[in-house]
Amino acid sequence: MLKQSADVRAQATLDGEGLPLPERNWAILSVAMGVSMSSLDTAIANTALPAMAAQLHTTPADSVWIVNIYQLAMVATLLPFAALAEILSFRRVFIFGLLLFTLASAACALAWSLPTLVIARFFQGVGGAAVMGINTALLRSIYPSSMLGRGLGTNALVVAVSFAVGPTIASTILSLWSWPWLFAINVPFGIAAFILARRFLPETKRATHRFDALTALYNGAAFGLLILAIGEGAHLAGTGTVLLEAGGALLFFILLLRRQKGHQAPMLPVDLFRRPQFSLSALTAVFTFGAQGLAFVSLPFYFESALGRSAVETGFLLTPWAVLVGIMAPIAGRLSDRYPVGILAGIGTAILSVGLMLMIVMPVDASTFDICWRMALCGVGFGFFQAPNLRSILSSAPPERGGGASGIVATSRLIGQASGSALVAFCFIISALHGEKLALGLGAAFAAAASIASFSRMFVTKNVTSTK
């Protein structure tokens, strides 16, 4: 009976009808739990960096690798997992990602030093890439085509809520227990999501082409060396080392492009970057998430070192940003149905830039209200950018290249966040006393650059329209 029911669900999803109720609700719950854990882990780690640095007896600059290695692993493996999922099925790759993420979370909780924690975080990032890189594609098989917008909205809400509660959860856990519990909390939820995924996630259509392992190797090496070079450069490593890593990244990118030339579905979707609207949208995302990475890694140190707040207070002070993102995202999404995306995202990133600059000029004796309204302003700007820009990336790609577009959505976000996090370490090295403010200033500059890129889409749209 169970096998017959599973066969019926599989056929329904293959026909584009989605899952029937209540199976649909259980399936979306498993996806939401996986996405939530991956999103929460970044927010939790950012908030707890000062506490982990102190308890692991390491410097703030070195502790940033706890965040960087997670993002490096995700960037290096996200596109290969997306390509592999088209062949093996999105269901299998998602379940594998959940399992690896859960086991790696347990390893993080048991880590006894910075090196062991960084290694465990690497594998956690690999599992997170398998989850985050294909969750949008899974939604296409879970929901009927007529309800896909609702599914994407639910997914965006889960991410926003996860970032919103992440700092609060981190602060609560740190007030009761030590930092290993920040990772141990993933284990029971990961097990539950794994069980639900195996039971309810549907099978999806599989591509006929074979997976090219060499292309995946080139991709992982190219992106991994790129992020590593950025991180090493931020830590002022030897010039020879940084140049070697950057040169290696360039070499593997060249090999990757040559290897996938003429492929009907290239792993690195260069065909989509020939579309100006797509390229500018991806560039806007990289700059904006770079600003977010600079802010969210530096703000805990700013609040605790410069403003004298406790770790628990820091978590609550970070919350207004994420809460306002959750409030503004659906509003901005509805506005994007009526107004140009370039204008909406341009206004949002400009607001974000102003908010970060206001954080810099905040007095040392600033009240909680003074901090919170500035954080809320940053959240308004970021939330106003996110949904319209996501819509622009997906809508500027043809339907048959939706997988490539989805992969670039996550890749752009992670490259921006990883670059921002690495640059925080560079700011600390330049000035141990004012590194936080330098990072926030750089974040404001990134947001301003994102605003320029976003508004540029208006001119591209006009030019394209005029040539038709």
Number of domains: 3
Distance between the termini: 56 Å
CATH architecture of the largest domain: Up-down Bundle
Structural class: mainly alpha
What is the CATH third-level topology name of the largest domain?
Growth Hormone, Chain: A
Under CATH at level 1, the class of the largest domain stands as Mainly Alpha
Q: Give the DSSP E fraction (strand runs of 2 or more residues).
A: under 5%
C-alpha Rg, in Å? Answer: 21 Å
Can you summarize the main beta sheet? none
Mean pLDDT: 79
Low-confidence stretches: 1-6, 11-15, 462-468
Oligomer: single chain
SSE ordering: HHHHHHHHHHHHHHHHHHH
Number of strands: 0
* Number of helices in the DSSP assignment: 19
What shape does the CA trace take? Answer: globular
Query: How much helicity do the residues have?
Result: over 70%
* Fourth CATH level, the homologous superfamily of the largest domain: MFS general substrate transporter like domains
Keywords:
468 residues; mainly alpha; Growth Hormone, Chain: A; 3 domains; 19 helices; 82% helix; globular; disordered N terminus; disordered C terminus; MFS transporter; MFS_dom; MFS_trans_sf; transmembrane helix; transport
